Structures are given as structure tokens and as C-alpha cells.
Amino acid sequence: MTKFKVVLTKETWPAAMERIEQHCEVKCWKEAEPIPRTVLLEWLKDAEGLFSTGDVKVDEDLLSNAPQLRVVAQSSVGYDNIDIDACTRREIPFGNTPGVLVETTADLTFTLLLSAARRIHECWDFVKSGNWASNNNIPYGVDLFGKTLGIVGMGDIGCAVARRAKACGLNIIYYNRTRRMDDHVLEARYVDFRDLLHESDFIITLVPLSNQSRGMFGAEEFAQMKSSAYFINAARGSIVNTEALYEALKSKQIAYAALDVTDPEPLAGDHPLLSLPNILITPHVGSATYETRNRMAHLAVDNLLAGLGRLALPACVNPTVNYPK
Ligand code: DGY
To answer: Which residue range(s) make up the domain with 48?
Structure first.
């Protein structure tokens, strides 16, 4: 049986890899640093499938170098690195991994909120450095109960965060492109973006990165928040103007930020954000549990194998070119 030629931009989980290798001849980048563009383009010359994790830009230039490509499968829900129109023009279906990471990402997002509110990493530093024994200057946090949480982007993950917030006694307001018809179930009140900025004690953003959301939180938006506001970003770094966030935190225009995503990403060890006392940053680990990353990898393999066999991808972002055509 002739195997399909497939390029992997990095290694995936063993069971998912086994499934790919059963059907495909694989070129896989195994080094710690990202695959160089020249290598990727060379490998794609005769490839029928591309499997990635959001670590490479798929654009016109890449696609024009891959004339045999039948499918692009990415193990992530976000796809701001993909030129979907370019894929569609070439009739290449693109598959992502929605659904399977919702609860995991909501857990991490809510963890950021709780950890920031109760200063968990400062508390740990306080104990670890031996300060506990010699002074009682413990880090004080703030309550959640009875406060207002503003969620910007009420998709599946936003709703899963809202459920957690409700259990903690937070009042929930949200802003979304369109109002959700089921918001009464979450007891969440739909508000204008500006009202959300004014009213929230905690703001969580979960909007996908697009031309509309890029830079959506800048100097003007931080200026409208309460000086006691906590700002949490678990979506994409470029939704926020990093310099404006730095200034807002440094001048105490807002109280605190907790970020799972940054711009740039990854952050260099000497980045100015890291010099601030009122920030907590995790390294883009929203979906990073063993179970969920495995589920994502398997869904991405489902998409890959379906596309190679010219069958409908189970999760296709550009359905007009999904198989069978
Ligand atoms: C996603 O799936 O989009 C997560 O952010 C991981 O990249």
C-alpha cells in the first residue's frame, strides 16, 4: 500500500504518532527549536498532508510551495497563524481541535484569576525564601465573592469560566459580538464593551485573535478600568498592547495582570513585564494537560487522515472546501 507523504512540524503524542505512521510516510522535525522555514518549504514540496501545532505560519507562500497538499491539520483550537482564505482558494480543508479543550482551558483561566486574587506565587515565594519564620508581612489578596467579573468573548470557554465564577459567588457580565440566547442559564448580563471595562473588578479576555480583536486592550481601555481591576488574558497575546499594559501596571492604573499568553511569545527573560511586582505569567499552557493534549492530537489525526483519504474532516474551519467536494 502506498503511504501518504506527511510533514509534522514537531513530534506528537506516541499513540497519535502511531496512527499517523500506519498510513503515512512521515517527515518530522524533532529538534527543540522551531522548524526552519527553509526546511519546512523543502519538505512540503511533495507532501500531501501538514500536521502542526500552530507553530508555523501557513500562508500563500507556503501553500504555493506545496502543490500536492490535500489537508492541513492543526492540534489547536486557535488558527490565527493560518491564512484560511488562502487554503480555501486552493481547496485545501483546514482542521482544528475545538471542543476537546474547553474545560481544561477554563480551569487554567480560572486558576489565573484565583492565583492572582490570592497572590499564590508571592505566598509561595514568601514561604520558600524563609520569610515566614522571621516576619508576618504576609501577602494579602482580594475577595471574589460578591465582586463583578467581566468576560470578553463568551464562547464555549467563556461559558465554562462563567460556570466556575458563578460557583464562587461572582456577578457575571459579558461582552460578545452577539448576545447569547442562553445567558440567563449562566446568570450573565450582556453589556457594552465600555460598560464592562468600567464595571468589572476582574476582566477575563477569551476572544480569538482577528483583525478586529488585535490590540483591543490598549491605553484607552486600561484607562477606563477600575484602579483595583485585575486583568486576565488567556486568549492570544496580540489582543493586548503590551506596552500599554506595562504602563498601566507600572503606574498602578490597574492593580494586577495574569497572562497565559503574551506578545511577543515566548517572552525573553529580560522582558520589562517580568520586572513588575503586580503580574503573574504562565507559558501558554491553557490546554496543556496530558489528557487534553492527547485528545487534541487524536482529533488532529482524525482531521489529517480524513483529508488524506478525501473524506470530510470532523472539525473543518473552511467547510466549503471540506471533502467530499
Ligand atoms: C489553542 O488550542 O489555540 C491553544 O491556545 C494552544 O495553542
So the answer is: 4-100+290-321
